[in-house]
Amino acid sequence: MRRTLVAGVILAIAVAACGGSMTTAAYVESLNALVASGRSDLEAAVVAHGQIAEPTLAESFAFVEREVAIRQEFLAGFEALDPPNSIAEVHRVLADAMARLLAAAEGLVAGAGTVASLEEAEQTPEFAEYRAANADGSSVCLEVQAKLDDLVAGGEAFADAPWIPNELSLAVRAALGCGEVATG
């Protein structure tokens, strides 16, 4: 369970809304700020949990409760974003993925009182959904990257700011934990 929990946490952060009042630059800047804060909080939680040699059931569920709190806070900030229409579809895809991740983590926490051990928790339908939601994050990464590539290929959405697609791609990759994120 511990490995799956850590993998789930690393797959971290992003969710819904759409509209178009923000500029692309403002959207990317806001998303980067949310990702930086959320990732920092998640990494701290992972480090703290990782320092426990043999986590108890209570410690493992406390870790997931912290994950839920971080995801909820991130979601509130993400929902406040009003992406430009050119990014609205990407934003919706992220929203769906992150809503599922949050719901799966909440379901796991809700079932905490019904199990007596980590091994028993790993056999629950809630844990299976938690694991599946985290595993599906990889396909979301690919789907979002394909949409970003289409936006770049079209060119017109970013004609006034050619650096935006790369910055948005990096922010999305960081938000979803899609492999290593290069800087610079």
Sum this structure up briefly.
This protein has 8 helices and no strands.
Which of globular, elongated, flat, extended, rod-shaped describes the shape? elongated
What's the β-strand tally? Answer: 0
Strand content is: under 5%
Helix content range of the residues, please? 55-70%
The tally of helices reads 8
Sheet/helix structural class: mainly alpha
* Rg computed from alpha carbons, rounded to a whole number of angstroms: 17 Å
Report mean pLDDT, rounded to a whole number. Answer: 75
> N- to C-terminal separation?
35 Å
Low-confidence stretches: 2-19, 160-164, 180-184
**Biggest β-sheet strands, sense, barrel:** none
The helix/strand order is HHHHHHHH
